[in-house]
Amino acid sequence: MELVPLLITFNQVHHKEIYDMLIKGWMTEGELCSHYEPGVVSDCLMILRKGNLVEEKWRMPEPGKKPEREFHASYSKFRANFQCAFNELSDLLYISSSNDADLRDIAEQMEQELRSGSSSINDMARKFNVSPMFIKGLAKRIPHMDVKGQGLVLLDGTK
User: Fold this and answer.
1) What's the pLDDT score for residue 61?
2) What is the pTM (predicted TM-score) of this model?
3) Dihedral through CA 29, CA 31, CA 32, CA 34, nearest 10?
4) What is the CA angle 38-40-45, rounded to 5?
5) Distances in Å between the alpha carbon of 84 and those of 49, 71, 75, 87, 124?
6) What is the C-alpha separation between 70 and 67, in angstroms, rounded?
7) Based on the number of CB atoms within 10 Å of its own CB, is 128 exposed (0-12), middle (13-18) or buried (19 or more)?
8) In angstroms, what CA-CA distances link 9 with 45, 53, 63, 64, 103?
9) Residue 158 — pLDDT band, cuts 50, 70, 90?
């Protein structure tokens, strides 16, 4: 399921460009916003965090100013050695690359379930007639949602 944030990042031109900038050095969100719209930057950073693709640390400020988080790409090389069921891989590839309206419908229903207090991945998978891996992958695609243990959580952007 960590494959989803990786594929989403490199399937969107601005996200890829932001990642490329973060490979070269540490940058704050404000510095990134000087190149891209704030919404694009915050969505990208949220996806990169969820995929563990960025490191963050506090930049020491000039006297009298507040410290700021700065980000750097965690990886500059990729090596994969994994095995999974082909139907799970096909789900993850579909989730990562599709703009299907059905995905939006399920995502909205997942959010409604979370807001009503139901966070179980298995319960949602049964309710929507999909695999738990599908639910996890879709949660990784949605910028304000993530997987925690056997459940889903809504993120507030301060992660």
Assistant:
1) 86
2) 0.71
3) 130
4) 95
5) 23, 31, 23, 8, 21
6) 9
7) middle
8) 10, 10, 36, 36, 18
9) very low
pLDDT at 159: 41
The span from the CA of 150 to the CA of 48, in Å, is: 21
Query: Which has more pLDDT, 10 or 33?
Result: 33
pLDDT in tens, 130-156: 999 999 999 998 888 999 999 999 987
Distance in angstroms (rounded) separating the CA atoms of residues 118 and 69? 33
Main-chain phi, psi angles of 79, to 5 degrees: -140, 130
Reduced DSSP (H G I as helix, E B as strand, rest coil) percent helix, strand, coil of the chain, to 5: 55, 15, 35
| Nearest alpha carbon to residue 141 among 4, 1, 2, 16 | 4
State residue 58's pLDDT score.
Answer: 95
What domains does the chain contain, in order, with CATH numbers?
3-73 (1.10.10.10), 86-154 (no CATH)
pLDDT by residue (tens digit) across 68-102?
Answer: 999 999 888 877 777 888 888 888 888 988 887 88
Beta bridge pairs of residue 27: 71
93 closest CA partner among 57, 123, 137: 137
Give the separation between CA 154 and CA 119, rounded to whole angstroms: 10
